[in-house]
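Project outcomes to date are best conveyed with an example. Our students and postdoctoral researchers have been running inverse folding experiments weekly, and each run begins with a structure described purely in tokens. The record below, which covers 627 residues, was selected by the lab manager from last quarter's runs and is presented without edits.
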């Protein structure tokens, strides 16, 4: 198979066996790869209602057809399972080099079942798969694990995806990390991996990725790279990456500040991406085969690290009222070494501080510590406590939804999550397309399932032309956003199935479905037009919806915390002041555009049949979701 490796490896950790099978070409064409193939496997192999840490859970690593080629940013991978944090679809994606190396090793997917009787790591090399005893890796942090495996294999170019101490301690938002800081950190995939006694997956491959039509593929790559290099955002993305959002969102009045109590941080300049680059950036860094080096290597005194992205930077500064950039970077670095999601960790800490401010909890609940905005000592202590599940950290280690349930006392109204997943550090009241995308995302409070950046263009004629109403092009308007989110969900699905970077495909919008179809034909030799390709992405969104509907999700779950629906952003939040999220009319428009039932949010049988997902209907009927 051109593009695809053509192989799937099934690993049974309980029996310590490996089964290699051919990838079904029709399945690859239908679900494309990466996230799409992963969710297809979960639907068929994970029974409804299964607990995320049950040994019967299935952990799937997947890459797409473009991994290992010169397509921009094609080193990414998806890892998927039932989430122990949310109880619904678990899935996460990371960049770096691991995804390309998995393809070079000859696999499109790893399907991992069971539980090893002792700690092991999976070693994929030219000699074939092997399980290697890993007791010596237990309790090591992410950086130490990767370094140790590189030394033990004698190959500094080995690619390692691993867990850290937080996963071993049972933190339910622990992730899978590679290339030191590249984090598949959302929904607790590291916790699932650790529950299987699997410390790491190490890969070194030497197989080529073949291309059906090299001349056309090369020409298309040249055109795409030229468009990227000429793009108005190129220089900014190279210099700052996503950290530019601190300044941009603060100007719009929707930078999540002190747990979303206001939309502007008075000390934003002290913690901005610009200041980070000026003071601490040593060099730019890029993922495999990417012309945009949007990450950065930093040196801050004795601390040498890579990153952070916007979420970590804003989460440990503005969100916690912290104006100390060095302390914020230290907190991000600790999360990376422990192997924890920075979004969930910073939300849990902000939640505790606001609960204390509102006298819902006391210092005694916090192990004698006094939670305060901007207190760097408290912030760093809490990161350590959560990673070890020590004291108050044990309550927070399940995520903010479960923490509020355990604490009680009315704290649930201050837990900022959707479907059990903490969401990003922008205030949704100022970006309403993103607000809708977060509310309906298939893995919970997640902006990366849609990324509807179109609403920042503020071009009313373009809004009218693309989505039927001028308001679609403005972040503080809600009309048209159902149609915007639908299209951007499908672009994000394409990026995750191909495991290429959303910077280009989604945010910079340099790849239409027509161009994408031309790339796919040149790479694979499979005939696919733009409409067919977009329909495959639409099918994935509907399959994920069917998965979470099977787990009990309905329209009432497609919501946001009450603060964003009923409490206007306060004065001082710039252009976003006074705004709330008008969610219900956006949901109606979104469901209509998707072909889902308005009352329940369930895809209609006709929609599922049209998209080739009729195989889901028996399970949905058994769940009482449809007739």
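After processing, the design step wrote out the following sequence:
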């Amino acid at each position: 198979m051109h593009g695809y490796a053509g192989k799937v490896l099934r690993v049974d950790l309980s029996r310590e066996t490996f089964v290699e099978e051919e990838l079904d070409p029709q399945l690859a064409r239908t679900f494309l790869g990466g996230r799409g193939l992963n969710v297809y496997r979960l639907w068929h192999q994970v029974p409804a209602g299964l607990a995320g840490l049950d040994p019967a859970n299935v952990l799937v690593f997947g890459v797409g057809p473009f991994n290992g080629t010169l397509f921009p940013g094609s080193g990414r991978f998806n890892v998927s399972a039932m989430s122990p944090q949310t109880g619904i679809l678990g899935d996460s994606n990371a960049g770096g080099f691991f995804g390309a190396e998995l393809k070079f090793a000859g696999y499109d997917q790893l399907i991992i079942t069971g539980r090893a009787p002792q700690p092991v790591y999976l070693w994929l090399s030219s000699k074939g798969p092997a399980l290697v005893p890993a007791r010596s890796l237990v309790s090591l942090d992410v950086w130490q694990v990767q370094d140790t495996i590189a030394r033990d294999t004698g190959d500094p170019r080995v690619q390692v995806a691993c867990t850290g101490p937080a996963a071993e301690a049972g933190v339910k938002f622990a992730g899978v990390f590679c290339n030191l800081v590249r984090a598949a950190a959302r929904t607790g995939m590291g916790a699932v991996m650790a529950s299987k006694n699997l410390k790491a997956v190490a890969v070194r491959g030497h197989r080529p990725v073949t291309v059906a039509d090299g001349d056309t593929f090369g020409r298309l790559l040249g055109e795409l790279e030229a468009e990227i290099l000429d793009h108005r955002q190129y220089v900014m993305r190279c210099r700052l990456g996503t950290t530019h959002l601190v300044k941009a969102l603060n100007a719009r009045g929707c930078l999540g500040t002190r747990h979303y109590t206001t939309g502007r941080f008075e000390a934003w300049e002290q913690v901005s991406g610009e200041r980070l680059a000026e003071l601490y950036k040593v060099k730019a860094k890029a993922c495999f085969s990417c012309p945009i080096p949007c990450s950065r290597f930093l040196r801050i005194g004795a601390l040498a690290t890579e990153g952070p992205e916007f979420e970590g930077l804003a989460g440990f500064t503005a969100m916690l009222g912290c104006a100390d950039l060095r302390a914020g970077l230290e907190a991000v670095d600790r999360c990376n070494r422990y192997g924890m999601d920075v979004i969930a960790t910073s939300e849990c800490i902000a939640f505790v501080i606001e609960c204390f401010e509102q006298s819902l909890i006391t210092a005694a609940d916090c192990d004698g510590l006094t939670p305060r905005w901007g207190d760097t000592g408290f912030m760093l202590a809490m990161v350590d406590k959560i990673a070890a599940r020590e004291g108050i950290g044990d309550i927070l280690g399940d995520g903010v939804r479960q923490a509020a349930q355990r604490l009680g006392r009315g704290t649930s109204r201050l837990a900022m999550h959707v479907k059990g997943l903490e969401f990003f550090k922008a205030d949704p009241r100022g970006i309403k397309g993103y607000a809708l995308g977060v509310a309906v995302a298939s893995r919970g409070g997640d902006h990366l399932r849609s990324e509807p950046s179109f609403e920042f263009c503020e071009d009313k004629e373009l809004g009218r032309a693309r989505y039927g109403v001028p308001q679609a092009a403005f972040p503080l308007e809600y009309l048209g956003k159902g149609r915007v989110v639908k299209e951007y969900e499908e672009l994000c699905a394409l990026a995750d199935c191909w495991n290429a970077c959303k910077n280009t495909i989604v945010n910079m919008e340099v790849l239409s479905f027509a161009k994408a179809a031309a790339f796919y034909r040149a790479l694979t030799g499979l005939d696919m037009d733009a409409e067919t390709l977009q329909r495959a992405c639409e099918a994935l969104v509907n399959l994920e919806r069917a998965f979470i509907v099977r787990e009990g999700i309905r329209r009432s779950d497609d919501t946001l915390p009450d603060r964003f629906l009923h409490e206007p952003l306060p004065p001082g939040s710039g252009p976003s002041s006074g705004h709330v999220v008008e969610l219900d009319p956006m949901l109606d428009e979104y469901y209509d555009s998707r072909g889902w039932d308005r009352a329940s949010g369930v895809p209609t049988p006709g929609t599922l049949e049209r998209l080739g997902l009729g195989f889901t209907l028996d399970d949905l009927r058994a769940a009482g979701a449809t007739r």
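Residues 59 and 81 are 5 Å apart (CA to CA). The longest helix spans residues 530-550. The training component of this project remains on track.
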